[in-house]
Write a structure and sequence with these properties.
The chain has a single domain, classed as Alpha-Beta Barrel (TIM Barrel). The protein is globular, with a radius of gyration of 16 Å. Strands 1-2-3-4-5-6-7-8 form an eight-stranded parallel beta barrel, surrounded by five helices. It is an alpha/beta fold and 218 residues long. Helix 2 runs parallel beside helix 3. Strand 4, helix 4 and strand 5 form a beta-alpha-beta unit. Bound molecules: D-xylitol-5-phosphate and zinc ion (ZN). The site of zinc ion has 6 residues, from strand 2.
């Protein structure tokens, strides 16, 4: 599938969030990655559906992929659907019934993803057959700007093999520490969906950065 760069606005300047989001998209980012943290599942608190809605009101029309790093993801689904989100990714261990959570996301008209922490196993083949994305975490979630965990490369390769075996058009996403310096090796391992936060918003020229990221994966 065509590789996607999803800009993680957790690393944007929140004082100018709509402008920063627009700038990332104008620079060539394909999607917006929206990191929701509840201070329980991860040791940090970020933003919720009202901010997603505010971006839509500010005429941000690109797809928004919401990464729920929260206990009880079911509680957030309806609000994010109303706020204009397109894809919801959650962590398997945060819900008592994965099938119900997936069904709720689909019923609300959104695509589904499962995120996998560095110390957690990949989803089962049966589950992969139902997903639109597996999101391999290449850092322990909670903060932007962390270093890519090198052992994630083997996990990405395993996830690619799983998706091939599942014969499903499912994105293989990677989230955490993606930069111009490592995106090529991450792509070669099988990734086709790249979440980039500080590797984009921490750089002086977003267009130059996205051009360089894309040159290494396209
Ligand atoms: C980590 C978040 C990531 C983060 C990525 O908890 O899920 O999406 O914003 O940021 P970078 O690219 O800076 O590691
Ligand atoms: Zn994320």
């Amino acid at each position: 599938m065509k590789p996607i760069i999803s800009a993680s606005i957790l690393s944007a300047d929140f004082g100018h969030l709509a402008d920063e989001t627009r700038a990332a998209l104008e620079a060539g980012a394909d999607m917006i990655h929206f990191d929701v943290m509840d201070h329980h599942f991860v040791p940090n608190l970020s933003f919720g559906a009202v901010i997603c809605e505010a971006l839509r009101k500010a005429n941000i029309t690109a797809p928004i992929d919401v990464h729920l790093m929260v206990d009880n993801p079911d509680l957030y689904i309806e609000a994010f659907a109303k706020a204009g989100a397109n894809l919801i990714t959650f962590h398997e261990e945060t819900t008592p019934n994965v099938q119900e959570t997936l069904a709720k996301i689909r019923a609300a008209g959104m695509k589904t993803g499962i995120a996998v922490n560095p110390d957690k196993p990949l989803p089962s083949l049966e589950l992969v057959r139902q997903l639109d994305m597996i999101l391999v975490m290449s850092v322990f979630p909670g903060f932007g700007g962390q270093s890519f965990i090198e052992s994630s490369i083997d996990k990405i390769k395993e996830a690619r093999a799983l998706i091939t075996a599942a014969e499903n058009a499912c994105y293989l996403g990677v989230d955490g520490g993606i930069k111009i310096s490592n995106i090529e090796v991450v792509a070669k391992a099988g990734t086709d969906f790249f979440v980039v936060g500080s590797g984009l918003f921490g750089t002086p020229d977003y267009k130059e950065t996205v051009d360089q990221l894309k040159a290494k994966i396209c």
